[in-house]
Amino acid sequence: MLKLLTKQQSTKRLFSTSISVSNLPPSCTTKFHPTKPQATSLQHIHIKGQQPYSLGSKLQEHIAQQCLTYKNHQILKRNPHLSHKLSQLPEPTPLKPLIFSFEFQSVYTGGKREKIQTTLEDISKIEHLKHCHYIQTDRGGQVTYHGPGQLVVYPILDLTMFSKLTSRCYVSQLEKSIIEVLNNNSSFGLNCQTTENTGVWCHHLHQENELRKISSIGVNVRKGITSHGVSINCNTDLKFVNDPQVVMCGLDGYKQTSIKEQLGHDVSLNFVADEFVKQLSGRLGIDQKDITSVELDPEEFEDEKSLLEKLDSLVHYKQ
Amino acid sequence: MFARSLFKTSSSALRSTTTTISRNAFLTCRPATLTLRLQSTLSANQLNKDATPFKFTSGEEPLVRYTTEHEWVAIHPDGTSFVGITKYAADALGDATYVELPVDLIGETVSQGDTVGSIESVKSASEIYSPLAGEVVAVNDALEENPGLLNEDPMGEGWIVKLTKADGEVEGLLNEEEYVKLLEEHEDE
């Protein structure tokens, strides 16, 4: 369980304490499968280069909003009282499930509860201390760090298009996919697991008694549409996350680690992304042959509009 | 394993408004046991008759409606309405660890479909939408200190937002029967 926080006179804790997480129900063991044709194939887009967090937000929101428009249309259709309104609206385009992967420039981000719990004073202190920005987001979870060497993956999909996939089960599938990649891929062979705290934890240097966090999770769900997702420490500079003055994920007293720290050498973020996509898709009942993977370099587009158009062309489902 | 033990319990247990069906059993029931499941779905997703949203107007029952996104609304004769999420939704989310209450909307008018907060469980924040248009008069502060109340009594003391002069499109909302039918269709997928 969590260590008790000892009062340290010289250090001021800058973020909220965690609440103790009581026994969670067992993680879902059902096999999932797509219930709609548009969910039977998946697009993976890896964005090349170290990008500002704002680009990640923009791209995922662009896709999520289209999913929501489509969803709202479906909701009207399903509602016996309102389906007469449909004739007034244009038929929106269905989207395939999409997984974005990114590498961001250094940033701290806060989940929804940090809107109240982290003050402006706290934010300017952290920005001053670590020389990088703090950004408020709409995902679950508390404070986390993104930066060079860390893989960030955002699956944007409609949970209701997969049989009985609740948000709780979805988070569990994310964790299981990460564990499968880190433990059972011959390139890594780590010893990772889940605990009562969300995320993926690694037995540090295969020791039984010390767990360090290697992957964090924070998801937003709107009418079944997911956004945000997971981060996996590949070659992350751990000084941003193991500083006692900054509490990550509301868990004081726990350290983070990275694949690099465990293996002693750098790993390829692209490789980890591809393996994760394969795992998650498999768990959602999507065949490997139905996964399309591309790498997009924002530098190669003359403006944001053309990048977004390219995204749309990849994600729109053609019947 | 859980499904089998569920159907050994007496039928009187299933008829009570607050059922004790385990989460896993509820979500993994086999089609052969549809009737029993229907009964339990119906009673599990009704308002708790001993709690505030139901008892608000003494001597009169509120009108209860549902959305396809698993919110419920209890509309009282004076226009005061309580909004929450159904037992089905609370179970699907898992244990709530944090409820984002729309305190900044108190005194403001919301439209039908506007976001009125979110519920976090296992680091997943799920947004809640207002079933009706109206003015937000209160949020359920009890959820701030005790998010677990949402799972304990989602159709009673775990209400989320209170609206007044609530109006509009009650016709767009589902009645109890229609909501249960929707859940059935969900389960059959």
Describe this structure in words.
- The complex is a heterodimer of chains A (319) and B (189).
- In chain A, 29% of the residues lie in helices and 22% in strands.
- With 319 residues, chain A is α/β, with parallel strands linked by helices.
- Chain A has one domain (39-75, 93-315): Bira Bifunctional Protein, Domain 2 (BirA Bifunctional Protein, domain 2, 2-Layer Sandwich), CATH 3.30.930.
- Chain A has an eight-stranded mixed β-sheet with strand order 7-8-9-10-6-2-1-11, with helices on both faces. Chain A has a three-stranded mixed β-sheet with strand order 4-3-5, with helices on one face.
- Chain B has 189 residues and is an alpha+beta fold.
- Chain B folds into two domains: 1-44; 48-188, Beta Barrel (OB fold (Dihydrolipoamide Acetyltransferase, E2P)).
- Chain B has nine helices and nine strands.
- In chain B, a hairpin with a 2-residue loop joins strand 6 and strand 7 (124-129).
- The interface between A and B is large, with 40 and 34 residues.
- Strand 9 (211-222) of chain A pairs parallel with strand 7 (124-129) of chain B.
